[in-house]
């Protein structure tokens, strides 16, 4: 691809000055955290727990899917709470109010519950969604922070989340309101988890890639190296000819076997380093694995190698069976 003609060459951007560094005082930041703590305390101290209980009980008894909806920051919170419920084995989904009015409302049925998050309760997109959702026979719940709002008056149930004010100095940016929405939703989620007697094994089944899932779901046979994945060699093999096998299998050692796959010993990265130190000149090219490997006496008593688990370079667990 050619360069631009000289007349069209773009000028080089001027070298900018480093941005002016502004310092935030420790006292200012500390006061903000304390103020947010006070706002959250106001929420906990004034929350109507009878409303919270009715809300939680309704979700617990739902025969269908629990849908959550919201716009803007409240929409992000609603989506997160829905994802939390799904991870707890509860049927849930996020319903975008705009997409709902363009076909996605077809996912709703009379067995479902629709929870609408809105700080003001006057979100236009949610108000437009309400009559359409009601026509589907959905049970409607609003979660708001302003008293006597349009959304709460049009729903079957309302949960009021007490909001003293936003942490924002203008009392505008939704930072405290979204924090209490998240606290409320996640606490209810854990209440549902307990009421449904979800076990750790059931929870792990929905998190196969996480630490809990790996520890409870996967068995040794699921993760161990087998057959061609194993870094195996014979006692008579030359060490220098087995370096590729030692490095490529990612186990940090060679498993020394006989013709019937009986484990005779191991030859580790450490053994290779010690061999290189001890051997001199061309002698290294004549050394065999059996000369330097760690002999395993118990393994010579008839145990057959079937697989290995590696956590290279920390450890290697060899699996044996009679």
TrEMBL record:
The keyword NAD belongs to this UniProt entry's keyword annotation: no
Any GO BP annotation: carbohydrate derivative metabolic process
GO molecular function list: carbohydrate derivative binding; isomerase activity
Pfam families reported for this sequence: SIS
Stretches assigned to the CBS domain: 224-284
Domain spans labelled SIS: 55-198
Superkingdom classification of source: Eukaryota
Positions of the record's site feature: Catalytically relevant: 73, 125, 166, 207
Annotated keywords: CBS domain, Repeat
Family according to the record: Belongs to the SIS family. GutQ/KpsF subfamily.
Protein name: SIS domain-containing protein
Species of the source: Gossypium barbadense
